[in-house]
């Protein structure tokens, strides 16, 4: 065992990377749930984004086009969920679970022939001056652009929900859809848009795994990240900055256990591998969850 | 005709199986408080939803200020100067007052400016309101203020109010009426929907009466008696509940030193309540909402358990028994909230009938449900209490408030209990239905049941009670004979006089 091999600066820097897919997917799901829709298909949308992004990147050679394709892929799959739940009024829980299964199958189908290929590298951006600052520089400023997109997304969602009129309407729809309808807001239109945004974010999160973290394609490579994202939305009491904390906590345990494995600690690898998930469950149990949006998961029909 | 604000011409709206509005025409003048009267299901809600742009009429037209008015959605109605205060508040519990108000406005100012305007307008109309409070923490009266101020901030020409006083205390009603009179003086027209005829007589100068979707009459409420208006609404002479003379029998229900801690944060503790109720007697319990009514019903129905000897029926201590055991012992209860407490909204009337009737009507055989018997019981209640519904297979939520209330009260009465405990039997129920419910309560008492009726409607209590007591902060005044009791005396019982009364009794 050699703990000295664990470098705290590198640990913190890689924590930010490990948390990014969760942040992206959870941020989208937070908007969806604040609009009163429970989409349990995050995992399916992530893996679909992972493969569409991977295919687009390998084909065009540009990770940026890949991320755009991942967003479109995730949003496209979420539109299926939106159509089923908002227009055909299907049950959101069952439809979300089906969406995950469908996404896993669809991505495996699309990914045939892409196994084992390496994705073109996504260049990191080095911010001069700041990245030279000791300790803070390498932690904060040695990342690829998507890490900052994730942070910007959280800040943007926070501002959107707290200060913008559209954000207020979105919260109102999620809080009490009947009252929002009585005031003349288009509940279904707003929810469809939220669902698509959630799908796009999940797609980005998935593509981050296949294009940056791994970076290659394997079937089922999101490995439950979508479920963690769902759990973190609840942990965060549907608030954006808490969501960031939750994602870093999960990312931190993930990175730490990898480092501990590398340091050869005398705990079976399986226990270490499950530790991020156990940590998430423990935190969920210990934190009494905040108040969920009032209409979360309820079916809305204008005549009722 | 320059003083006409809104004119409705031949509005008709049909839904599958029912014509909600049929050729409805009337006009509302500028600065007029116009009452819209009608029984449940007479088409009032459909009509105001049409004016507010939530419902499109099949035929007919509307003119606002001499121009054609066809709102396609509520935004268009608001833009034309029509605002509406809903019966079931269209508020968002988790949002604060300012956010709720912003949601109901077309072009809200920045939040800081809006908060200042809310303070300004709420002071101007005597409706104090803090823009930063979370709406979920407000009382019913305060929540209504939020809705009213939301409307007022848009300088409406026409304010529609759907049953605005059904959730207010008498003091809050006074405040509301003062506000409405200020608005009227400023030239705002008000379309006022209510069941409470006395209110309409004090407030409105014109009334249109709807029955089965048609306009059946117009009157000046100040010149017309409440009884005449009620008869126009019902289309028949109105029955005033009366009680056949009879003697009170032996003591059936004894409440002995009933004390219980508040069941939740916003609840009221019950403090040493002692009272006997005799067979054939109606004990009316008045009081302002939140003084222990819900807790007393819970302690009697068995939802909240107490020490065994605190509640006694026919000499048997039942304080530790649950609701079904108490039903078996002869005590039936109907709580205030019909949707979700007295009835499960998404279950059918048969299922709802079964849930409280299972014990006394033997609807369970060897652990299996006797559906034919349950259905027959539900049909019996529907028939005896004139519940308007296509049949017992319909969900409870599909019934209008008054009809569901008739069903849940009827369900308990038809079980012929030894003791009936009811909370707010006619809350939000129209005059005809209220009269029939009260008559049924009186008939039940005459047949030998001891009735405890808790209500905030003092007229109702004076009409049906033999003895009257008041709940005040969880304490019950000693009951007094209801006959000859004046409103002033009742007011004293409801207020702070309680402590003096107790001291007097102890001495």
Protein described:
The complex is a heterodimer of chains A (304) and B (507). Chain A is mainly alpha-helical and 304 residues long. Chain A is built from 12 helices and no strands. In chain A, α6 crosses α7 and α11 runs antiparallel to α12. Chain B has 2 domains: 231 residues, P-loop containing nucleotide triphosphate hydrolases (Rossmann fold), CATH 3.40.50.300; 256 residues, P-loop containing nucleotide triphosphate hydrolases (Rossmann fold), CATH 3.40.50. In chain B, strands 13, 16, 19, 20, 21, 22 and 23 form a 7-stranded mixed beta sheet that branches. In chain B, α3 crosses α5 and α13 packs parallel to α14. The relative contact order of chain B is 0.10. The chains are: A mainly alpha (304), B alpha/beta (507). The interface between A and B is medium-sized, with 17 and 19 residues.
Summary tags:
heterodimer, A: 304 residues, mainly alpha, ABC transporter involved in vitamin B12 uptake, BtuC, 12 helices, 0% strand, B: 507 residues, alpha/beta, Rossmann fold, 7-stranded mixed sheet, 6-stranded mixed sheet, 23 strands, globular, disordered C terminus
